[in-house]
Automatic annotation (TrEMBL):
Membrane found in the keyword field: yes
Upper lineage: Bacteria, Bacillati, Actinomycetota, Actinomycetes, Micromonosporales
TM stretches of this protein: 38-58
Domain YoaR-like putative peptidoglycan binding: from-to ranges: 269-334
Name recorded for this polypeptide: Vanomycin resistance protein VanB
Entries under InterPro entries matching the protein: Glycopeptide_resist_protein, Vancomycin_resist_VanW, YoaR-like_PG-bd
UniProt entry keywords in alphabetical sequence: Membrane, Transmembrane, Transmembrane helix
Entry keyword DNA repair: no
Length: 587
């Protein structure tokens, strides 16, 4: 029994923990270092091959990235741009097959503003992240960045719509004189202009036909909307005049002007938006000028033979744009009097001193003077045209037309009847003699080295002009035109005396120009002609001849080039006013 008791006591006693050999701290630290080295070694063995593989493809575009079938993976950004542009060059320029409803057609990509933005597309490819194993599954496709001009595309597609569509009737309220007339909406069928850009951008360059469906087009404003506009705005708007109060006085807008300026038209989606046509309102109400101050443009003046800019002066005008909401609100009531207070705003000059100062007009290019006899009627015409010409500025690459600038010579403009060549005879007409202005201007252009576009010498030679280097003008058939082929502007200045006209051109000098003449050849003597016409002008007659002249361009004393001019003058007849003498009869 003692043995059994001892056995039970042993089972009830707690089990002693198993003991491990005591390891000194220095040994534990050494083992830990070995474990870390082993872990690092294993990690290195795993990572190094992966890093090596990634380094092989560590370019701007990750491996497996494609655009429109072009593999850009592994290329630098610059190489990817070149590769994509070169590969798709022909596809980008090729006509685009489209289907408008049931109609097939092709569209010229350039004509509709289709552009493949290669740089933006490659940027998108650079940002793409396929993942380390995406290339095993064919990589990823990046969509190209494409732009289209929706307006031009819509016009091109509409040309192929044919009879498949019916344009919707866009709602509006219009005025028949002063009576408002409703235009009610009618649905149609056609192309959705809001979707065509996205459709083309998504379908172009895919080697497939791009489909543009024909859909229902329903105007946004309804018949009820039009009726409300008719009752709430259009009808009361023309019930009475409108008074605009300004800090400088009142302006009354009469009913016809309201009808001309109030616009109740739809936008492209058929939404009617009331608006005010400010230009039409100003045209219909001339009295705005009574409360406004006109702006004065900057101009050139010539002081001590040098061009000087005279600054602009801004004006003031009625601020109709800011007042439009208040005006539209006032037009909704037919109660009188109707009045809206309107402020004034600055009206900038159209031409500023900054603009003129940037044209490079700073020195004399050329000057030329021709003479005439004082007291003749033609002198009035010469002065009138010279004044109209003075201060004209010709911009770089602009072609100047003398006829276009001064217009038709009329009595209302101050021109008088004076002799000029008409059908080979000397006739009186408004503006006779202004060819002297044309000749003087042409010589100034000649010696400034500017490009001759159009000129024609006189039929007969006049010794008051240099031969060959001269010009005549007749409105509108004969003009004097020249092109400012310099990189800076050109200012035309004129001056007249009782016996002369001078034209001076200012700009930035490029050339020293001289003229060289060849001999007069093929001389033809004049004939005598008797004229029994009420406006006959007698002449002494001059020989005709042929001659050439050369414009020589020089820089720093060295000839750069020369330009040939040549002309054949007809002999000026000896015109005698009166009947031809009769031959004596024999007795």
């Amino acid at each position: 029994m003692a043995t059994d008791l001892l056995s039970r006591l042993r089972r009830l006693a707690p089990t002693a923990p198993q003991t491990r050999p005591v390891v000194p701290p220095i040994v534990r630290r050494a083992r830990a270092r070995r474990r870390r080295r082993l872990t690092a070694t294993v990690t290195l063995l795993v990572v190094v091959p992966l890093v090596t593989a990634v380094s092989t493809y560590a370019k701007d575009v990750d491996r497996g990235v494609r655009v429109l079938g072009v593999d850009l993976g592994g290329h630098s950004r610059a190489d990817a741009v070149r590769l994509l542009r070169d590969t798709l060059r022909e596809r980008v320029a090729a006509p685009v097959p489209v289907r408008v409803g049931a109609s097939g057609a092709v569209v010229d990509p350039a004509a509709v503003g289709l552009v493949l933005d290669v740089d933006a597309t490659v940027d998108r490819a650079v940002r793409a992240t396929p993942g380390p194993f995406a290339w095993l599954h064919g990589g990823i496709t990046v969509e190209p960045v494409v732009h289209a001009d929706a307006t031009r595309l819509y016009e091109a597609l509409m040309a192929h719509l044919g009879t498949q569509g019916d344009a919707p009737v866009l709602p509006a309220v219009r005025f028949d004189k002063q009576r408002p007339v409703a235009v009610y909406p009618v649905s149609g069928r056609g192309i959705d202009r809001h979707r065509i850009g996205a459709i083309m951008e998504g379908g172009w360059l895919r080697r497939q036909t791009v489909d543009f469906p024909v859909v229902d087009l329903v105007p946004r404003s309804t018949k009820a909307d039009v009726d409300r506009l008719l009752a709430d705005l259009a009808t009361p708007a023309v019930a009475a005049p409108l008074v605009l109060g300004t800090p400088r006085g009142e302006v009354t807008v009469p009913v016809p002007a309201i009808a001309a300026a109030l616009k109740l038209e739809s936008d492209a989606d058929g939404l009617v938006q009331p608006s005010l046509d400010i230009a039409a309102l100003r045209k219909a109400v001339p009295s705005f000028t009574k409360v406004e101050v006109a702006a004065t443009d900057a101009t050139f003046t010539v002081e001590q033979d040098r061009p000087v800019v005279k600054p602009q002066v801004d004006g003031q005008q009625v601020d109709l744009a800011a007042a439009t909401p208040a005006i539209l609100a006032a037009l909704r009531t037919s109660a009188t009097p109707r009045r809206v207070e309107v402020g004034l705003t600055a009206k900038p000059a159209a031409v500023s001193s900054t603009q003129l100062g940037g044209l490079g007009i700073r020195e004399k290019l050329s000057t030329f003077t021709t003479k005439f006899d004082a007291g003749q009627s033609r002198v009035i015409n010469i002065r009138t045209m010279a004044e109209a010409l003075r201060g004209a500025v010709v911009l770089p690459d602009q072609t100047f037309s003398l006829n276009g600038h001064v217009g038709q010579r009329t009595h209302a403009k101050g021109y008088v009847d004076a002799p000029g060549i008409e059908d080979g005879k000397i006739k009186n007409s408004p503006g006779g003699g202004v060819s002297q202005v044309a000749t003087t201007l042409f010589n100034a252009v000649f010696y400034a080295g500017l490009q001759d576009v159009e000129h024609r010498p006189h039929t007969y030679y006049f010794d008051r002009y240099p031969s060959v280097i001269e010009a005549t003008v007749v409105f509108p058939s004969l003009d004097l035109r020249f092109r400012n082929d310099s990189p800076t502007g050109v200012l035309i200045d004129t001056a007249t005396t009782d016996t002369s006209i001078t034209v001076t051109l200012f700009g930035t000098k490029r050339w020293d120009v001289t003229a060289e003449y060849g001999p007069r050849t093929k001389t033809v003597q004049p004939t005598t002609t008797y004229l029994r016409e009420p406006d006959c002008n007698p002449t002494d007659g001059l020989p005709g001849f042929t001659q050439e002249a050369f414009r020589v361009f020089k820089q720093d004393g060295k000839e750069i080039r020369r330009e040939r001019f040549a002309w054949r003058y007809d002999p000026e007849p000896h015109f005698i006013c009166g009947p031809a003498p009769t031959s004596p009869t024999s007795g």
